[in-house]
Amino acid sequence: MKALIIGSGIAGPSAAMALQQAGIDSVVYEAHASGADGVGVFLTLGSNGIDALRVIGADAPAVAAGFPTPAIDMVSTTGKALGTVHTSRPDGDIASRTLKRADLYRAVRDEALRRGIRIEQGKRLVDAQDTGDGVRAVFADGSEEFGDLLIGCDGLHSTVRKLIDPAAAAPAYSGLIGLGGYTRGVPVDSQVGSYRMVFGKRAFFGYVPAPDGEVWWFANLPHRDEPARGELEGVGAEQWRSRLVELFAEDTGPAAELVRASQEITSASPMHAMVDLPAWHRGRMIVIGDAAHAPSPTSGQGASLSVEDAVELARALRDLPTIEGAFTAYDALRRPRVERIVKQAARVNNNKAAGPVGRVLRDLVMPVLLPRLANGEQSRRTYGHHIDWTTPMAAAEGVGTARN
Ligand SMILES: Cc1cc2nc3c(=O)[nH]c(=O)nc-3n(C[C@H](O)[C@H](O)[C@H](O)COP(=O)(O)OP(=O)(O)OC[C@H]3O[C@@H](n4cnc5c(N)ncnc54)[C@H](O)[C@@H]3O)c2cc1C
Predict the structure, then answer these.
(1) What pLDDT is stored for residue 402 in this prediction?
(2) Are residue 245 and residue 367 in the same domain, yes or no?
(3) Quick one: average pLDDT of 185-189?
């Protein structure tokens, strides 16, 4: 069996490695000619994502590229502690890690290449057809490739998703735009590796001191209408600096100072989410990762879910007799888990974009709700998730189970 994998972000190389471990050949096709997509932005790879990489023996390079971030302290507009989210696996064996998105891309791609997996850069998929006994992929350079199945790992604005279901809704804009930066020389009140996230009066701010003394920060700003394509790219770092300093001027904490002294401010992007996509697969084509179910960056889970998807899809293809049977079993297994996480992040986004009345309510409700969300069953299920690679996947494994 040969799989055509579209996209060399996080899901793509992870899927290729997991398929190889399952005895299935694949080739990865990436639109960009170089692998530097996402330079600047950082993210958290959850303990569940590291665990999923460990299942395919590929966790070490990603772990080495980041630093441990076991906790997030949440703070209200007035500086009141709202609670702490623990982001390590409940048994303490694996801590979540913070790393630059480009370093995570590089870590998974280089590990896949080291294992002999073919990754072709500069190959943008524009069309694909299920021919009944195989699948034909067509690229922007006019070339074609044939395989037994096609896996769309092509992210939020997926082409494969539209080929599977031309009527599929576009990802929903969350009402927020996000950007970040890196600052040296400003002392902060948080331990190395621990995030502090503040529901500011006019925008949301998070920061984490890295082991080398730099402080990594991000901001989420309410922005009612979805920015037009190119609109945010036209705003320079210095314009963002003065806008953010003004937005955070009245908040407690070091937000304004961190922005003012920042050595680097990344470009801004609108935050989207994709939930309830009805068709993840059709015939011999399937989407996984952000192409199927992007949680907004708020969840801190997009990358981790992408790796989990890759490993579970390979397990389904290894164990079930037909491609469609494997896709159906995979869908039933994964859907409840990813949709729970995507919806939870959407609720937090609403609080980030709250108006004056919403802010008062949020600060009353959060101290009660957050400890339950952060340290209870939900958190245990998110960060403690483990894939049992050795157990054969049954067609009905995901039906009626509570393990998601
Ligand atoms: C600002 C920001 C902060 C984030 N923070 C976090 C966080 O803290 N934790 C977390 O887990 N996640 C976070 N995320 C989300 C995370 O980056 C994504 O969930 C993750 O990258 C999804 O992986 P993927 O492989 O599905 O898609 P992507 O990483 O988007 O990769 C898709 C790849 O497909 C390629 N491609 C697209 N179209 C085509 C085509 N037609 N043909 C060929 N190739 C194509 C793209 O070039 C890209 O390389 C954040 C995202 C952003 C933007």
Answers:
(1) 47
(2) no
(3) 93
Can you give the pLDDT at residue 226?
A: 94
- Is 273 or 239 the better-scoring residue by pLDDT? 239
The count of residues in the chain is: 404
Nearest C-alpha neighbor of 10 from the set 267, 266, 290: 290
Is the residue at 164 inside a domain?
Answer: yes
C-alpha 251 to ligand 1 mean position (Å): 32
Q: Is the pLDDT of residue 354 over 80?
A: no
Residues 199 and 77 in one domain: no
Examine the domain organization and report whether 151 and 252 are in the same domain: no
Could you tell me if 115 and 74 are in contact, meaning their C-beta atoms sit under 8 angstroms apart? no
Q: How far apart are the first and last CA of the chain?
A: 29
The residue segments making up the domain with residue 220 are: 172-272
What spacing in Å lies between the alpha carbon of 242 and ligand 1's midpoint? 29
CB-based pocket (< 6 A), ligand 1:
6-12, 29-32, 37, 41, 43-44, 101, 124-125, 153-155, 159, 178, 269, 289-291, 294, 297, 300-304, 306
**In a domain? residue 91:** yes
- 257 belongs to a structural domain: yes
Question: Does residue 259 sit in the same domain as residue 120?
Answer: no
Q: Is the dihedral of CA 232, 38, 99, 159 positive or negative?
A: positive
